Amino acid sequence: MSIRRDPLDPYDRQLVREGQPSPAGPRRSYLPDVPDESLLGQEVRRFEHGSRVPGFRDATDLTKDPSGVPDPAQVPVPAELRAEIEDYMSRYPDHRSAAIPALAAAQRLHGWCSPEAIEQVACVMRLTPGYLTAVVGFYDMLEATPVGRKTVYVCTNISCSLRGGDELLASLKGELGDDPDVNIRGFECLGACDIAPMASIDGTYVGPVAADEIPVLADQIRTGSDPLPAKQLVRRRVADAAANSDDVVRASTDTGTLGPVALGPDRPQDTVPAQTEGPSA
Ligand code: FES
Prior knowledge:
The protein is α+β, with helices and mostly antiparallel strands. Among the domains are: 48-146, Orthogonal Bundle (Arc Repressor Mutant, subunit A), CATH 1.10.10.1590; 150-231, Glutaredoxin. 30% of the residues lie in helices and 9% in strands. The chain has a four-stranded mixed sheet, with helices on one face. Strands 5-6 form a two-stranded antiparallel sheet. The relative contact order is 0.07. Bound molecules: FE2/S2 (inorganic) cluster. Residues 155, 157-160, 189-193, 196, 198 line the site of FE2/S2 (inorganic) cluster.
C-alpha cells in the first residue's frame, strides 16, 4: 500500500465528496506515482544486527545487554583517582560536567581511556560506561586506544604551517616515530601562534622551533628532560617589564596541572631581548 499525503483540509474534502471542484485543485501526491504493487515485498535496508541505523565504528555489540552503572562493590577504584574525580564533581552544579576532567585523570593514571579506566570513572560518577565512551569518542585529547605516555602535539594550523610546522612534524616523527613511549601527532591551533612553529611537549609549549633544534628537542623528549628551556612560552618575556618574573610555572608531566618550577643558577638565557625604556617625550 502506498503512502499518499492528502493536501485537502476537511472543508475542501467535504466539497469533493459532494461532487464539487476542490479549491485546492486536483488531488496531488508528494510521492512518485508508482503502482502499489511495486512497494509490496520491498525490504527495508538493514545494517548489522538488524538495525535500520548504521553503527558507529561497529563499537556496539548488540548481542550483549547494555552496561548499567557499575557496582562500587565490584569495581576497585584507586583512592587518589576517586578523590580527584570527586573533587571535580564538587565544582559543578551538574556532576556530569566533570566527565572530561575525570576521564583525563583516569587517562593520566592508565595511559589511555581503557575499558578499565572508563569503568572506574563511571563507578565514581554513577554514570554508565556508554555515556563516558561517547565523551571519549568525541574529544581527541582523550585516547580511545593505547598510546605512548609522552604526548607531543605539533601545531600544523595556518600560522605554524606557514612557518614550517609541517616540516617540524615530519622531522620529529622521523626522529621519534619508532619510540612506543611517544604519542606524536599534528594538532590544530594550540593558541600560541606568536611562537610559530611550535609544539606542546606534555603540556609545555616551545617555539619557535628552528630546524637545527629538532634533534636536540627529540633527544629531550626521549629522555624526559626539560624541552628547549630557552624557547618555552612560559619563560618568554612580555612587553610589560613589570609583569616579567622568574617565578615561572610549567605543566607538570605527572599531574597535568600547573605547579612551581624552581629555577637555579642554570636558568636559560632568554632569546628575546629585555625591554628597554623608550626615549622620553
Ligand atoms: S597556528 Fe600554531 S599555535 Fe596557532
